[in-house]
């Protein structure tokens, strides 16, 4: 577990270690089957997998990159894509979102397991069944890592979490736990998921009222809560930017007064959350059909 946080070279060596990832996954599956999700060794295994999934899209060997991103060869050369992962242009991002992954292998081995739907379901199961904060945080964090990039893999993982594995109810429950770090990681995962336009209506329906409910009514007292507040505002921004329906849902659940309060606090410590809230207000105002409702 300590070695898995030793940096890019350490992660690379551990991902390439024959049988290591398979053994970790096998152990966790056994613990879940034996109804022992709070086992300390399970926590260690999940924390290792969490660390090994960090920056996975950027650090994958070229052989996997070619396999996973092979459909991108069909893109026009005018996009000037500088390799498998380096591009950041909006046009390419839009095309990436429409690019499906190849069919999953039924028996993934090694590094292939890290983004496979089997492990995604394991993480969601641990989020639901474990009461250990480190296990919950590592499971959420692994999903956050896997959904963090801009290529087809993060978007495919997001589709699996939301649609195939019905993971939103489990993630929503983590918004209401007392541990601030678990809550922060759950919000960060939702922020990543909310970038996927095809999932925004599902996410808004399932968790938008919960996100509004955990926004602070006044200036929060800890750095973790500052960051969580900023992340909530950016998630709400993603969900409402293109949807008047979702903006109205935010309004009807009492979000506006909270967001205005957050936006008006200009202390240096709180500025990140204040900027996020201001951006959200600006976006909400762009829905001209809601102006009279806002004024009321």
UniProtKB/TrEMBL annotation:
<keyword id="KW-0130">Cell adhesion</keyword>
<dbReference type="GO" id="GO:0007507">
    <property type="term" value="P:heart development"/>
</dbReference>
<dbReference type="GO" id="GO:0002934">
    <property type="term" value="P:desmosome organization"/>
</dbReference>
<feature type="compositionally biased region" description="Basic and acidic residues">
    <location>
        <begin position="94"/>
        <end position="107"/>
    </location>
</feature>
<dbReference type="GO" id="GO:0072659">
    <property type="term" value="P:protein localization to plasma membrane"/>
</dbReference>
<dbReference type="GO" id="GO:0005912">
    <property type="term" value="C:adherens junction"/>
</dbReference>
<dbReference type="GO" id="GO:0045110">
    <property type="term" value="P:intermediate filament bundle assembly"/>
</dbReference>
<dbReference type="GO" id="GO:0005634">
    <property type="term" value="C:nucleus"/>
</dbReference>
<dbReference type="InterPro" id="IPR016024">
    <property type="entry name" value="ARM-type_fold"/>
</dbReference>
<dbReference type="InterPro" id="IPR011989">
    <property type="entry name" value="ARM-like"/>
</dbReference>
<feature type="region of interest" description="Disordered">
    <location>
        <begin position="76"/>
        <end position="109"/>
    </location>
</feature>
<dbReference type="GO" id="GO:0005737">
    <property type="term" value="C:cytoplasm"/>
</dbReference>
<feature type="domain" description="Armadillo repeat-containing">
    <location>
        <begin position="154"/>
        <end position="203"/>
    </location>
</feature>
<keyword id="KW-0965">Cell junction</keyword>
<dbReference type="InterPro" id="IPR028435">
    <property type="entry name" value="Plakophilin/d_Catenin"/>
</dbReference>
<dbReference type="GO" id="GO:0014704">
    <property type="term" value="C:intercalated disc"/>
</dbReference>
<dbReference type="GO" id="GO:0005886">
    <property type="term" value="C:plasma membrane"/>
</dbReference>
<comment type="similarity">
    <text>Belongs to the beta-catenin family.</text>
</comment>
<dbReference type="GO" id="GO:0098609">
    <property type="term" value="P:cell-cell adhesion"/>
</dbReference>
<protein>
    <submittedName>
        <fullName>PKP2 protein</fullName>
    </submittedName>
</protein>
<dbReference type="InterPro" id="IPR006911">
    <property type="entry name" value="ARM-rpt_dom"/>
</dbReference>
<keyword id="KW-0677">Repeat</keyword>
<dbReference type="InterPro" id="IPR000225">
    <property type="entry name" value="Armadillo"/>
</dbReference>
<comment type="similarity">
    <text>Belongs to the eutherian X-chromosome-specific Armcx family.</text>
</comment>
<dbReference type="Pfam" id="PF04826">
    <property type="entry name" value="Arm_2"/>
</dbReference>
């Amino acid at each position: 577990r300590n070695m898995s946080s030793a940096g890019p070279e350490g992660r690379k060596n551990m991902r390439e270690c024959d049988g290591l990832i398979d053994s970790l996954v096998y152990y966790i599956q056994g613990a879940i089957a034996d109804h022992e999700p709070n086992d300390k060794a399970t926590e260690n295994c999940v924390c290792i997998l969490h660390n090994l999934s960090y920056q996975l899209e950027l650090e994958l060997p070229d052989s996997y990159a070619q396999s996973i991103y092979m459909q991108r060869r069909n893109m026009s050369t005018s996009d000037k894509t500088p390799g498998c992962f380096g591009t950041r242009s909006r046009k390419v991002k839009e095309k990436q979102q429409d690019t499906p992954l190849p069919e999953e292998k039924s028996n993934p081995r090694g590094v292939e397991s890290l983004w496979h739907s089997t492990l995604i379901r394991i993480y969601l199961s641990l989020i639901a069944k474990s009461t250990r904060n480190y296990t919950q945080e590592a499971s959420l964090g692994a999903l956050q890592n896997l959904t963090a990039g801009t290529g087809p893999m993060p978007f495919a993982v997001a589709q699996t979490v939301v649609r195939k594995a019905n993971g939103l109810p489990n993630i929503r429950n983590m918004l209401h736990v007392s541990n601030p770090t678990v809550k922060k990681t759950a919000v960060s995962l939702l922020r990543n998921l909310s970038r996927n336009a095809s999932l925004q209506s599902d996410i808004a329906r399932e968790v938008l009222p919960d996100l509004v409910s955990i926004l602070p009514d006044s200036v929060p007292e800890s750095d973790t809560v500052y960051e969580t507040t900023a992340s909530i505002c950016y998630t709400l921004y993603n969900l409402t930017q293109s949807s008047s329906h979702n903006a109205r849902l935010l309004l009807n659940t009492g979000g506006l007064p909270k967001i205005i309060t957050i936006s008006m606090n200009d202390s240096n410590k709180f500025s990140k959350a204040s900027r996020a809230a201001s951006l959200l207000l600006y976006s909400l105002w762009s829905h001209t059909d809601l102006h009279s409702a806002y004024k009321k």
